[in-house]
Design a protein that fits this description.
Elements: E1 26-31, E2 51-53, H1 56-63, H2 73-84, E3 90-94, E4 102-111, E5 116-121, E6 129-130, E7 140-144, E8 149-154, E9 165-173, H3 180-184, E10 186-187, E11 194-195, H4 203-207, E12 211-215, H5 223-234, E13 243-247, H6 261-267, E14 275-278, E15 281-284, E16 287-290, H7 291-305, E17 323-325, E18 331-332, H8 336-343, E19 349-352, E20 357-360, H9 373-376, H10 378-395, H11 405-424, E21 431-434, H12 442-446, E22 453-456
Parallel strand pairs: 1-3, 1-12, 12-13, 13-14
Antiparallel strand pairs: 2-3, 4-9, 5-8, 6-9, 7-8, 10-11, 15-16, 15-17, 17-18, 19-20, 21-22
Helix pairs in contact: 1-2, 2-7
Length: about 475
């Protein structure tokens, strides 16, 4: 050290570390999008890339929009999140690749109606070619109508102004060619890029937000997809955890009746604590949604009402629907007995009983085989994930610091204050963090490992409220007051 003379200062690390807040239920949706309809110049490049969206317009610009939710499943998520539940942000991952899932339509003659030619839907605009020596912007123009149909307009004064038919060739998107393996994804051998559900591990490195909920509308009905979704949320980036929200199919070969759903659930292994299992579909007007899609929007809105802390169950909160339907379009009327039967089998459903259509069910897919509250109750499971993720993010800054009494006190004091604050606001009933000798052997401490025991109790949902009524004859004595 050089010679010093005078007054100097230095700083100690703060002994209390404020928590890093997480997005409690950041949804990640994987599916197919009409990227050919996107107005963003880079829209056609949104293939197997996580995109974080905060507004309806931003999502439509980047991914396009179609009301055909069966073909374009990410549009179901966009409409539900923004139009029905008004919640953001969320992540979209499109698995529809125009280089693979396409059909080349050879040039053919199309009739002209009022100087326009309708080529139909799913047309990639920059592949449209008119036979003949015609100039774009002089003889014709191209655009999409409100239904997503590609329209060739013959311009006044152009060479095609009086044509009765036009020969046109183009390439059409084929979303029906996407299969469950495109959604599952993996690592592209040729490029080394991650694809499909494998991109869940890229969300936090890119956006610094932890995925809380994972959805693949329509595709989560495939057992292979649901299994990978569960695995991804069980181990995000080797550190974080979350929930996969999945559906039981209501097709004829799935579970068209409520009595079919539990057997299908067990046979296809939708029985994990990291799965929230939904049945059937829900309808609003002419739009049909997978229940999992609306349930995610409902969980996000419920979390937002509670300071982004997922301690409240989505059950008995309002969905945006006016009917339950199966995949055949048949309306399903569930009474409390039928809905409770599904709940008792670890299935979330919808019930129109008191207060309109509401989500109904507090249990994860692990129930009834697993009754441990931390794995069986949706809000407790989500709280355990959320608090665990927050602990990792908060104290990552202390990794590799020297193991000293100051470090132990900093972690214990900081997190006890955090848990006390959560308890004061009743987001948990109580909690504490301890550094205990039995958990920390000398060999572990010497090897750089220190363990903290965190005990918490999130409030369970009031799944049953029971009134016990008793006839008390003693109140007959009031009759004598009348003649007193």
């Amino acid at each position: 050290m050089s010679f010093r003379h005078g007054v100097y200062k230095y700083e100690e690390p703060t002994s209390l570390v404020p928590p890093v807040r997480t997005e409690a239920g950041l949804p990640v949706f994987v599916g197919t999008a009409p990227i050919h309809l996107g107005s963003d110049p880079e829209a056609m490049k949104n293939i197997h890339k996580p995109r974080l969206v905060y507004s309806y317009s931003e999502a439509v610009e980047m991914f396009g929009f179609s009301r055909d939710f069966q073909k374009y499943t990410l549009c179901e998520a966009i409409f539900s999140q923004f139009a029905l539940f008004a919640v953001a942000p969320f992540v979209l991952i499109n698995a529809l690749d125009p280089a693979i899932h396409r059909e080349i339509v050879v040039a053919a003659s199309y009739p002209v109606t009022e100087r326009t030619v309708n080529l139909g839907q799913d047309v990639i605009m920059d592949t449209v070619v008119l036979d003949g020596s015609y100039t774009y912007g002089v003889d014709y123009s191209l655009g999409y109508d409100r239904n997503g149909n590609a329209i060739v307009t013959l311009l006044k004064g152009g060479a095609l102004e009086l044509a009765s038919d036009v020969s046109v060739g183009f390439t059409r998107l084929r979303p029906d060619m996407v299969d469950e393996y495109d959604i599952i994804g993996g690592v592209n051998i040729a490029t080394g890029d991650y694809e499909g559900l494998e991109l869940v591990n890229k969300v936090f490195p890119r956006f610094r937000l932890v995925p809380g909920l994972l959805s693949a509308p329509k595709w989560s009905q495939k057992p292979a997809v649901a299994a990978v979704m569960r695995a991804k949320m069980d181990n995000i980036n080797g550190h974080f955890t979350g929930q996969a929200v999945v559906d039981i199919p209501s097709e004829a070969d799935g579970a068209p009746r409520y009595t079919d759903a539990p057997e299908w659930k067990n046979r296809n292994n939708y029985v994990a604590e990291r799965q929230i299992v939904c049945w059937p579909k829900v309808k609003l007007g002419n739009d049909v949604f997978h229940l999992s899609t609306q349930l995610i929007g409902l969980m996000n809105r419920t979390d937002a009402r509670n300071q982004d802390i997922p301690y409240e169950s989505p059950s008995n909160n309002m969905l945006q629907m006016n009917a339950c339907v199966n995949a055949l379009g048949k309306e399903i009327d569930l009474g409390p007995e039928e809905a409770n039967y599904l709940n008792g089998q670890g299935i979330v459903t919808a019930l129109n009983w008191i207060g309109g259509w509401r989500a109904w069910g507090n249990r994860t897919g692990a129930y009834p085989a697993v009754t441990d509250p931390k794995d069986a109750f949706i809000p407790i499971r989500r709280m355990m994930d959320w608090i665990g993720n927050e602990f990792i993010l908060t104290f990552w800054q202390k990794v590799d610091k020297p193991i000293t009494k100051r470090l132990v006190r900093t972690i214990v004091n900081s997190y006890n204050m955090r848990l006390n604050g959560l308890a004061a606001r009743e987001f948990i009933l109580g909690g504490r963090i301890e550094f205990l000798e039995p958990d920390n052997t000398l060999t572990d401490l010497v090897d750089g490992i220190k363990r903290f025991r965190i005990s918490i109790m999130p409030p369970p949902p009031a799944e049953q409220i029971v009134g016990i009524f008793e006839l008390d004859p003693r109140y007959l004595k009031v009759l004598f007051d009348a003649v007193a």
